[in-house]
């Protein structure tokens, strides 16, 4: 009996083991097939999903989301946030927008463009002017551009004004208000706290640190801002009035007529701007959609008008540049000493890009696109010097100034063969400063004393808990004076002027591109395309030593290499929702948003100022000087 039970147990145990073994094998097979499926799907998305089928008589939909920038963030977290629309600072690269319009203008399958601006956050006036020029070139091909938005702010309206027709929601409005504004000044508050900013600077117009040492803007700051902003406002209004065929000066006159004009229209803001000829029609988007269906036909799959998304279209139609070319390096954002991601400038990392272009035999010239208010003096000099070496080794260097190329942004432009600025560029601000906050008054109010042994006075000479040692102030002032002299001397050499002339134009004062050109601080007025053509012209003048090809050299952007997963997330995550499902995407969202923004960053103007000051003071080395204009670029 016991033997029979034992045999039955062994048989049962063997059966269970076999079932478990078969189950594990099945699970391994299913898991392996699942992994292969996901890998295969990703490979298909990366290598075969780029091509989109564009139907004849299609509408290119430019649904612009985010800010208009020279370059977009490349970090994994930023890409996840942007693609899943969890980050309001998602962006539109200016070059992507202009290239899309250039391709579509020549494409017989594209009938027209729908410019949808609800989620467009705008950009600096130079970026808007270049985007508007691309729209005008598209219209020159004989194809119309239709703009629609529920409402238009000042930035959105500048682009919309260059469309063939502007449509506004019947309950919408156009918010054009002008440039300039007010900012916070913290001296009185700091005095009450017992904190002293200790601003050390050269240049009577160098107003970057004024909010922390004054209770109101200085006369010089107001003078410089008024001179620049009045010029920028005229450029804005002239551009809109010309595009809309409005009388010169009418935009300012219309603003001056408020609120009486709105009261006359019984509070109907949409009808008011239609009467002003700022817009052409008042329609909901659904009625616009129905009209487009009748005009271009219906797509049976989407039950809407024949259309193609602009990002998908660009990914499908653009080609990679091979062989000889002009390298374009984007210098956008604050300038630091070391290495920086896209959206900021690192002295070392940007200099490395210039060195890479210099050593590449296929690179025949370098165009540096500058969009920076400045930052570290050391970082600026590392970039300028590497550009100087590129020129010495036979590579023409052309600088194209974007929205702002001031202070350190101007410094890095000094090694170019030719410097071009847009009339609306903010540049100049030749000046240097540093700031050493101390809180001895606050420490006294709290009853906290500080003492200790030091082998020399310089050990801990800058201690935020104590008043600034006069000897430290003298050291810093001497260093600031030296850096300013270097800045002026380098500018004088580059611009073929004497030191006194540069000093008179410097002193930290900002200029528009047009004002800078009049003062010989830049060579010519022009946009990015003009800068590329200038590089080609410089090569042509060199003859056989330039390019070996007779055709105009193409351009190729040189920048940090994105990883496989970053490329996938940026370009294909929206297409992959069917693949990953909502649960996986929610998990990715958790990863993407982990690490909440600093509460200080959410305090409006105060938060921005404190974060900026933190960035200025982030370098703990003595004699860390800053060439920064703290420009707030209109519009």
Largest pleated sheet: 8 strands, mixed
- Specify the CATH homologous superfamily of the domain at 195-247 and 324-447 and 457-543: 2-enoyl-CoA Hydratase, Chain A, domain 1
| CATH C-level name of the domain at 195-247 and 324-447 and 457-543 | Alpha Beta
Radius of gyration: 30 Å
Distance separating the two termini: 96 Å
The name of the CATH architecture of the domain at 195-247 and 324-447 and 457-543 is Alpha-Beta Complex
**Gross geometry:** globular
* Chain-averaged pLDDT: 84
| Helix share, percent | 40-55%
Residue fraction in strands: 15-25%
Q: How many beta-strand runs?
A: 27
Per CATH, what is the topology of the domain at 195-247 and 324-447 and 457-543? 2-enoyl-CoA Hydratase, Chain A, domain 1
Unreliably modeled segments:
43-48, 74-89, 573-604, 619-623
What is the secondary structure topology, with strand pairs?
Blueprint: H1 2-47, E1 58-63, E2 66-69, H2 76-83, E3 91-93, H3 94-106, E4 110-116, E5 120-122, H4 125-139, E6 145-149, E7 152-153, H5 154-160, E8 165-168, E9 174-175, H6 187-193, E10 199-202, H7 219-244, H8 250-256, H9 260-264, H10 269-275, E11 281-282, H11 285-296, E12 298-299, E13 304-305, E14 307-309, H12 310-317, E15 325-332, E16 335-336, E17 345-346, H13 347-359, E18 363-372, E19 374-376, H14 377-392, E20 397-406, H15 408-411, E21 418-421, E22 426-428, E23 432-435, H16 440-445, H17 470-495, H18 499-505, E24 510-512, H19 513-518, E25 524-525, H20 528-542, E26 555-558, H21 564-572, H22 577-593, H23 605-616, E27 626-628
Parallel strand pairs: 1-4, 1-14, 2-3, 2-5, 4-6, 6-8, 7-9, 8-11, 15-18, 15-26, 16-17, 18-20, 20-21, 20-22, 21-25
Antiparallel strand pairs: 10-23, 12-13, 19-27, 22-24
Helix pairs in contact: 2-21, 2-22, 3-4, 3-12, 4-5, 13-14, 17-18
